[in-house]
Amino acid sequence: MRYLITILVLVPILAIAETTGFGLLRSEVISTPQGQVTETEWQHVDTSGQAFGLHRYESADAVTIATLLYLPGTNMNGVLKTADSDHNLWLYLAERGIEVYAMDYRTRYIPHDFSGDLVLMRDWSMDLFVEDAVMAVTKVQQDQPLVPMYIAGFSRGAAFAYGLAGQVEAAGLVALDGSFKKQPYESYDIGAALQRYDEEARYASALSRRGYDARTEMMRRVISDPASSATNDRYQTSGDQLADILYQAWGPAVLANTRSNITPIDILAREMLGYDWFYPTIQGIEGRSIASQQDDPNTYIDDHFGEMTIPVLYFGSGGFGAESLLSGIHSAARSGSDDVTINVLENYGHLDVLFATDAPAEVYGVIYEWVLGHQILEPVSE
């Protein structure tokens, strides 16, 4: 099945930013098998000329009951790739009255063929990305001040979500196969790690060792027709080739359980094709430092951890392994919240949490019902 995004309304790029600092780029009506959802995209450019973005997904056919700020994982962004709410959380929620705002990190605006100096990513810290998210919250609350706002993050985005929860008011937090803290805590010499970081001067990591052209060609073959010929003689079809690569990528069934066909291979290809090519390596160092201790003195974004009061909903994939699950469960259970819900998806790989065929029942619908169950109704003054 093919999924088409129909552009019915196109707004030219505007140079004038709104009061929140976000300038409107475009607005499109997306036709899906389930109906229509409008995507609106904004961009914020800081004083150094660096940008990050924000997308809103909303349905005119649904009464808005809440908003959700979605923080993507590493190399991921807020651009819609699959226009079908059976395989897209944002559309599923938008069609039911939860407007989703999905972020583009600064990495979205660094092309794969960037010829400049990647030293510009040297200070793209977790603190900075959380500060960008705080600005996104200002935009969300300006747009919808009368409904509760929830925060969600996938993978590394879950760590950002935990960090953000201490800086803004939110009605709840959804952690999708990601964590903030690790148990047991262990010593980590961040000073030595930062010294090596500057000595090696590897300020950014590239998405794939296969190279942009080879990776893109493989993904496009699968999207066009999973039964098309592979780019490697070891495989009969392009779908078989990509399925095997993803199955083995981080260890058997860790990234995606393709041998059990939890997620259709063309959906995975569609989603992965549009990844950001570079990502700041400093965040790997910082993330490990934050995870290794109750309160990392090198940052402020975990100062509230252990004293959180908002509800927390966690999903963990069984395929990611026991250590990841334990860290995710520990982060939720030790957040300080007295309202924690844990969901373990035993046969899922990491990406399956977002895109599985059964995700509408096992993930999307659970989030929707959880939001409904945590609505705070306030009297409306006239």
Give an overview of the whole structure.
The chain is built from 11 helices and 11 strands. Residues 1-17 and 378-382 have low confidence and may be disordered. The protein has helices at residues 89-94, 126-143, 156-165, 190-200, 212-224, 238-248, 265-273, 282-291, 322-333, 352-355, 359-373; strands at 22-32, 35-45, 51-58, 66-71, 98-104, 149-154, 172-176, 204-206, 278-280, 312-317, 340-345. Helix 2 (126-143) packs across helix 3 (156-165), helix 4 packs antiparallel against helix 8 (282-291) and helix 5 packs across helix 7. The strands form 2 sheets. It has a 9-stranded mixed beta sheet, with helices on both faces. It has a two-stranded antiparallel sheet with strand order 8-9. 31% of the residues lie in helices and 19% in strands. The protein has 2 domains: 22-194 and 281-373, Alpha/Beta hydrolase fold, catalytic domain (Rossmann fold); 208-274, no CATH class. It starts with 21 loop residues before the first strand and ends in a 9-residue tail after the last helix. The longest helix has 18 residues, at 126-143. The protein is of the alpha/beta class.
Features:
382 residues; 2 domains; nine-stranded mixed beta sheet; two-stranded antiparallel sheet; 19% strand; disordered N terminus
Please provide a brief summary of the model.
The chain has 382 residues and is α/β, with parallel strands linked by helices.
